[in-house]
Predict the structure.
Amino acid sequence: MRFLPRLLLAAALATATLLGCWWLLGGRTGELASRAKEALPLTLDTFLHTQQLRKKRLRSFCSRSTEGATLPESPKARGRLLSNMRVSTKLDFLYCQVPATGMEGWQQLLEKLEEKENVTVPMPLPYPRQNAPQTQLSKFNQTMIKAMIGSYIKVLFVRDPFQRLISAYMQSVGSHHHSFSTFVQDVLDRGQHNVRLEAKPLVSLCHPCLIQYDYVMMFGFLRQELGHLIHRAGLPKGIHLPEFMDSEVQWTYAWLSEQLFSELSLKQKKQLSHFYREDLSAFQFSNSLLSDFLSTPETQ
């Protein structure tokens, strides 16, 4: 028996997000509100320590990974490799644009800052500053790309790959009426190179072994973490951050993940873990349902 009709599932998720999971979680909102009140503000020291741990894990992953760490000589190859990389040449930021990671609010913030003529980052650069809007990193020549990678503040947004997969599934609900299990099987059959962008592993999109990110921002903690980031980057303290709903959405997806995960066969669970093995190894997703299958060989 299927979990829910597809369109009803989409409506339920939207309702849960907007109303704080009231309907979907069946009265658990009191518990969630209680836990939210107990959550302590993220201090700067905790933020910096967390960043150190995340980057240490990334370095460990890259030390044993075959993921490319060299910028291709060919402009065409660079274009493919860096297709998701964006830069703000006015603010000297570089980030990876990946759907369903919460970075949309970050883009809005950069756009607002770029509109302010007096906002600049106090950092000496080895080339003339350009006051152009956000653009693709691949549009610059190799010398400029290397300079930007070496001097810009580099930001990566990450999220549990299974939750990103659910988000991709929800986007397809309106035009398709297939089950989640069927959707997952299609992703597995297509493989990492042919699957849609929303379902691709982050490592293959953002290349953390080529681009050594200064900050790794985790979905579920974006507002507090970005508050510390913009101050560390030397941006004005009076900046009004966009509304980030990722902490509320995180609670919804925690429940939804269990429901949809139960629809999958054991073989699919193992194959999904293998599909996202690099993301699970490179980043710490302590509550990911796929982590339990990470050490299990893929079932053919």
About this structure: The mean pLDDT is 80.
